[in-house]
Design goal:
With about 210 residues, this protein is mostly helical. About 75% of the residues lie in helices and about 0% in strands. Helix 6 packs antiparallel against helix 10. The N and C termini lie far apart (about 40 Å). The mean pLDDT is about 95.
């Protein structure tokens, strides 16, 4: 590796170490009860190093938030020839359920409880859902060739994003009820198909590639 490559690898290693230690402490003590100083001590770095990598404390808990926010828009942009936005999003979600993807909500009982028990993280999660919906609206507008003043992409994104919110919450609900990921996937797969089917009459042909 080059010197630059080694430096970047070291930065990524440090970032992951801080994130892992923060998550461990959050799950053990609670998000609000854990301090940046405690995280820095656990990761054996300076407090300034923690805040340099993660400007907000919430970023330590949601270290994959960029992937989450971009996920629906990316699915629409990568839809197959002849495939509508609805079909692409349904296919992608069902595949995520099959592989029990954490981005879809399969985060495990400890992490799910950490979010549910923290008012701060619960609000942050709602904000991430909002950002994901905004990104989806932009992707739908581009896919449909919509005019800037056209409200349709935003309305479609609200509906499609709403289904994803409901399904994400359902996975969290079942996780906190004590079900394992395989059991949850077996339940949520058919429920997701049913939820997306409700949108077929209105959005079945929208933004078809």
């Amino acid at each position: 590796m080059t010197v630059t490559g080694l430096r970047e690898a070291k930065k990524q290693e440090t970032r992951q170490l801080i994130s892992d230690q923060a998550t461990r402490l959050f799950m053990a003590k609670g998000f609000e009860q854990t301090t940046i100083a405690e995280i820095a001590e656990a990761a054996r770095v300076a407090k300034k190093t923690v805040t340099n990598y993660f400007p907000r404390k919430e970023d330590l808990a949601f270290d994959h938030q960029d992937e989450f926010v971009a996920s629906l828009a990316r699915t629409v942009a990568a839809r197959e020839p002849g495939e509508s936005a609805l079909s692409a999003l349904r296919r992608d979600f069902l595949e995520a359920v099959e592989r029990q993807d954490p981005v879809a909500g399969f985060a495990g009982p400890e992490f799910s409880r950490m979010i549910a028990d923290s008012p701060t993280l619960s609000v942050c999660l709602r904000g991430l859902h909002d950002q994901r919906e905004d990104a989806l609206a932009a992707a739908l507008a581009q896919a449909a060739g919509a005019a800037p003043e056209d409200i349709t992409p935003r309305a479609a994104a609200a509906v499609l994003g709403g289904v994803h919110r409901v399904l994400f919450a359902r996975i969290q609900e079942l996780t906190l009820a004590g079900l394992g990921n395989a059991e949850i996937a077996a339940l949520v797969g058919p429920e997701a198909a049913q939820a997306f089917a409700l949108l077929e009459p209105s959005l079945g042909d929208y933004a078809r590639a």
